[in-house]
Structures are given as C-alpha cells and as structure tokens.
C-alpha cells in the first residue's frame, strides 16, 4: 500500500509498524527516522523557524492564524504524482500539521481517491489506540496489536517500579513565551511515570496561561518540554523558567523526541520522566534526552 504521512508522529508510527518501504510521502518536519525526510518525497512545506525565539515563533503563528492563512503548504502536484492509497493526517492542532479538511479539498480538486485517516488523540490511551488504527487502515492489523502490546508492557514495567512510592508534584511547561502548560496526553505521561501533574489540562488542548498560575500549585519538579525543540532548545529555554519556580527542581526534556509528538516514543518519554522522579527505582534516561537545569 502506498502511504503518505502528513505529520511527524504518523511517520514514526508507520516505521514502527514496519511499513517504511510503503511510505512514499512525508512533511518537511518528518525527521524521525532521519531516512524519512531524506529518502521520501516531501509533500508538505512550511517556514523554517530555526533561529527564531519562542516569542517570535508565537508572534508569527498568531499573525498567520489571525489573517486566516495556513502555516503549512500542501504540494498538491507532488501528492498527485505519488498516487497514494492512504494519507494519514490530523485535526488535533492547526499549529502542528495540516488539517484533514485541507487534504480532502486537495484530493477532490486533483481527482485522487486515496483514503484519509485523521489521528486526533487527546489522552495517552488514545495515542496507543491510533497505532492500531494505522495498522488496520494499512492492512497489517496484527502488527498494530504487537506494537501496542510491546509498549503497554514497558508502561506496566514502569508502573510496577514506581508503585507505592511518594509522588512529586509536577508542572510541565510546553512553551515559554507566552507560557503554556501542557495538555493532551502529557498529564497521563506524568502519572504513568509516578508523578502528580498540577496546573494542567489533561485530555484538552494546551492553552496560554501565566507564570503565576503555573507556579500556584507549588510543584516539586518542573519539566520544560518545548514543542518543536529537542534537548538543546529545551535547556536554553529553561533559563526563562527557573526564576518563576524558586522552590522546584527544573529539568529540560527533549520535547519533540519524547513528549509532544503522539507516537511510539511517548513511552520513551514516560521512562525518561520516571528516571527524573524516581532515579533510584528505574534505569537512567538515555544521554541527550533530559538534563537538570537547577
């Protein structure tokens, strides 16, 4: 089956299911695994925000959305040339990827008959369920069940190691200018790692807030996991976070790799967070995934 992924997490899911050879189209942000962007046709482009500050990126996004403009560009001709049978997209976040409605409009205009699968999970359990959705739609349902079972066993192993231990209060900062507390599946990840999430919107979209609101519950640990950034960016941005939480330990986490993309690596994220909260009970996180800032 000829597959096109219009979001990075779907690309990761496709490869985790062993369908990398069936993938023919990706987005300019599909960097995991690295071969996806290097060897597949890029059918969605967008602005390269490297070198921009979080405030500049936020201003750019708000200006584009206020003007009714898209943040991403679908290369329709390239998509048509690929003749996909299944296109995987989303409606979860307009800032993160092209909405499925735009894809439907483009397919109608081009006369393409590909199926469109929209992945829109809001909880960790729903993220795991999307792996089987993709597997079924791709004709390999058993691979989806196997992948989900492997990840659930890893989550169960973490749960066993942290069971009965004191739970630290955790605030997760998803963006620093303006501040965003993490929503969606992130509070579930904190709980799965043996922590107690505070000041969050579990199962709902992330939203701008204030430093005072994020600090009000008095977290013991603050995780800085900026959307669109890996560990280096998280460490740099954590400098803006430290003054707002004088009594908390502040950690930087590879946001794109471990937290914000709803793919298989969220389980890596749970394990990494558990290593922060319960270092004497779980194995250490891999190098390059987390760093203590204070």
Describe this structure in words.
The chain has 294 residues and is α/β, with parallel strands linked by helices. 41% of the residues lie in helices and 19% in strands. The chain is built from 12 helices and 15 strands. Strands 7, 8, 10, 12, 13, 14 and 15 form a 7-stranded mixed β-sheet that branches. β2, α2 and β3 (41-46) form a beta-alpha-beta unit. α6 runs antiparallel to α7 and α7 (141-162) runs parallel beside α12 (266-277). The chain is globular and about 60 Å long. The mean pLDDT is 91.
Give a brief rundown of this model:
It is built from 12 helices and 15 strands. The longest helix is centred in the middle third of the chain and has 22 residues, at 141-162. The protein is of the alpha/beta class.
Write the layout of secondary structure elements.
Elements (H helix, E strand, L loop, with lengths): L2 E3 L2 H9 L6 E5 L6 H6 L1 E6 L7 H13 L5 E3 L1 H7 L3 E4 L10 H11 L4 E4 L5 H14 L3 H22 L6 E8 L2 E3 L1 E2 L1 H7 L3 E2 L3 E2 L4 E2 L2 H5 L5 E4 L6 H11 L7 E5 L1 H4 L7 H12 L12 E3 L2
Parallel strand pairs: 1-2, 1-5, 2-3, 5-6, 7-10, 7-13, 9-11, 13-14
Antiparallel strand pairs: 3-4, 7-8, 8-12, 14-15
Helix pairs in contact: 6-7, 7-12
Task: Note the main attributes of this structure.
294 residues; single chain; alpha/beta
Which structural class should the secondary elements be placed in? alpha/beta
Output the helix-strand order. Answer: EHEHEHEHEHEHHEEEHEEEHEHEHHE
For the report, how would you describe the main beta sheet? 7 strands, mixed
**First-to-last CA distance:** 49 Å
**β-strand amount:** 15-25%
Q: What percentage of residues falls in helices of 4 or more residues?
A: 40-55%
The low-confidence runs, each spanning 5 or more residues with pLDDT under 50, are none
Identify the overall geometry: globular
Radius of gyration: 19 Å
Number of strands: 15
Average pLDDT figure: 91
Note the total helix count: 12
